[in-house]
Specification:
This protein has 313 residues and is an alpha+beta fold. The protein folds into 2 domains: 161 residues, Ribosomal Protein S5, domain 2, CATH 3.30.230; 137 residues, GHMP kinase, C-terminal domain (Alpha-Beta Plaits, 2-Layer Sandwich). The protein contains 9 helices and 12 strands. Helix 2 packs across helix 3. It is globular, with a radius of gyration of 19 Å.
């Protein structure tokens, strides 16, 4: 038997960087992410097609070390051995779309199923956070939460709750292909806050109010409010130094193609932008944008969390 699990990636609609300083943010599960397949093996190994890497779980390569730490702890705690894990990803890695969290969640669920076990939500969260801490140092945990639960998530510190929008809606995602260091970007915003505390406070207060307003707007289907709030956040993030010329160009092109709201998503410094179209003919806007940026994609959000199934070998 082969045991499969799929976990979604995520985008941050609003509030990144401000959330580090105690503000709320909104994150949504994408309809694409990472699939893991676990099967019986003589040796515990992991294969990542996206990274072009393969290694024993006990002796990981640098790129697979975070994931292997999570799997090693699970296997050791349960006294399990004899599994091969193969990862396939439908989202770019190191792009701020939650690929590391989705990989950990999918792999852990598939491995547990391979041995006839089950991880409850809290157990799965804690095992996946082992990997996330190795990747991000002191992560908020929202990527893991979204990978497990899916949905559209309001989060502020340790507080998380699901927001139910009027209906699912399409989000365009386009990536620069530039990797970035999240820790360095967080430090850059902290330095901006130190140098311009009054301005930062004003923007943070505005961000909090806009996030709260957008919760209601999403529930009522007023997507124009969300689009304008996205544009505000992009301007603030650019002024704080976490956007880049490449991200700025993508934002301009997205708005020019007809996406009413466009902004970077995640830490910035590279990674991806998202675009929100508030009308019915979003496909035309996507086609116009993809004429220049063919690697962009459309995703319907919010989407479901981790799922699992099995097939015959």
């Amino acid at each position: 038997m082969r045991f499969h699990a799929r976990a979604p990636g995520k985008v941050i609609l609003l509030g990144e960087h401000f959330v580090v300083h105690g503000n709320p943010a909104l994150s949504a599960a994408l309809d694409r992410g990472v699939e893991a397949v676990a099967e019986e093996s003589n040796e515990d190994i992991v294969i990542s097609r996206a990274l072009g890497a393969e290694c024993p779980i006990a002796r990981p390569t640098p790129s697979l070390t975070p994931l292997c730490l999570s799997l090693r702890q699970l296997l050791g705690d349960r006294s399990w051995n004899g599994v091969k894990v193969i990862l396939e990803t439908a989202i770019p890695v190191s792009a701020g779309l939650g690929s590391s969290a989705a990989s950990a969640v999918a792999a852990l669920v598939a491995v547990a199923a391979r041995f006839g076990g089950h991880l409850n939500g809290d157990e799965l969260y804690e095992y996946a956070m082992v990997s996330e801490r190795a990747v991000h140092g002191n992560p908020s945990g929202v990527d893991v939460y979204v990978a497990i639960n899916g949905g559209l998530v309001y989060f502020k510190g340790k507080k998380r709750r699901q927001v139910v929008p009027y209906k699912r809606f399409p989000i365009m995602v386009s990536c620069t292909g530039i990797e970035r260091n999240t820790g360095e970007l967080i430090a850059r915003v902290a330095e901006f806050r130190r140098k311009a505390p009054d301005l930062f406070r004003t923007w943070a207060t505005s961000s909090e109010r806009l996030v709260e307003d957008c919760v209601k707007a999403l529930e009522e289907g007023r997507m124009d409010v969300v689009a304008e709030s996205m544009n505000f956040h992009q301007q603030a993030l650019k002024a704080m130094g976490v956007s880049t010329p490449e991200l700025d160009a993508l934002v301009r092109e997205a708005r020019g193609a007809g996406f009413a709201g466009a902004k970077l998503t995640g830490a910035g410094g590279g990674g991806c932008i998202i675009g929100l179209h508030t009308g019915a003919d979003y496909q035309a806007a996507l086609d116009a944008f993809r004429a220049k940026r063919p690697n962009s994609f459309l995703s319907y959000v919010p989407s479901e969390g981790v799922s699992s199934w099995s097939t015959q070998s």
